[in-house]
Design a protein that fits this description.
The protein is of the alpha/beta class and 241 residues long. It is 30% helix and 14% strand. The longest helix is centred in the C-terminal third of the chain and has 17 residues.
Length: 241
């Protein structure tokens, strides 16, 4: 239909009326409560945070699509991800949910803020539309002065986002790419959209080769150790092999 005949909410909800963008388990609140009570990480984990029991009940408002994605994420050890949205030109990074629950906007960085800012910048600076000197505002938010990246919660709070869930429940670092001002481009415009994003997508995927990698082995048997917890000084978010 194109943007001319489609409102911004077209296709946002599933057949069951669930907004998948807010449908993942809220692990942020449990982590922040534990931090406030000085329980992290000796009594409450700072990573691989378990899914709350209420979320697993049969009558919980969880879409089958969401359950399928969570199952997929638990079966494969993803380390890098991006979800693609339309309607703006900006890359957002976690946290997506404000730490002060009643605030609609609040800078809420993760323990890996530097890494997330780097990942967002890699995409934004190589995206032809975002990097264009002739770039104009999509709507009223001026993301250009921030380098076309922003902390998700500092834009608008999104409880139950996939980005926050990925970071807190798995080893995966995930960002959101708002990749076009036009939420519903016509088919004839898709080649241009592809050219705008092709190099960004490739460069973003290449970031899996950054950082430390290897195998954790038993010093006596030389056998690999599963689920070894890796901690980095000064970063209150561990990862596992």
């Amino acid at each position: 239909q194109g943007s001319e005949l489609s409102g911004w909410a077209m296709g946002r909800w599933t057949y069951e009326g669930i907004d998948l963008n807010h449908n993942f388990a809220d692990l942020n609140t449990a982590l922040w409560d534990a931090e406030d009570n000085d329980l992290v990480p000796h009594k409450f984990p700072n990573h691989y945070i378990p899914i709350p029991e209420y979320y697993t009940f049969a009558n919980a408002t969880v879409a089958p699509e969401t359950r399928a994605v969570i199952d997929w994420m638990q079966r494969y050890p993803f380390v890098l991800s991006a979800n693609l949205h339309g309607g703006e030109l900006v890359v957002t990074y976690p946290f997506d949910m404000t730490r002060t629950y009643w605030k609609a906007q609040e800078l809420t960085p993760t323990a890996d803020d530097g890494v997330f800012r780097w990942l967002a910048t890699v995409y934004a600076t190589s995206n032809l539309a975002m990097a264009s000197e002739e770039r104009r505002l999509c709507h009223y938010d001026d993301f250009i002065r921030f380098g076309n990246i922003i902390n998700g919660a500092n834009w608008h709070t999104v409880p139950g986002s996939m980005n926050d869930f990925s970071y807190l429940h798995t080893n995966c670092f995930e960002i959101t790419v708002e990749l076009s001002c036009d939420k519903f481009p016509h088919a004839s415009e898709l080649p241009v959209e592809w050219e705008n994003n092709r190099e960004s997508l490739l460069l973003y995927m290449e970031q899996v080769h950054r950082g430390i990698k290897g195998v954790v082995r038993d010093s006596d048997t030389d056998q690999g150790i599963a689920n070894a917890v890796i901690s980095v000084d000064g970063i209150n978010h561990d990862v596992r092999t």
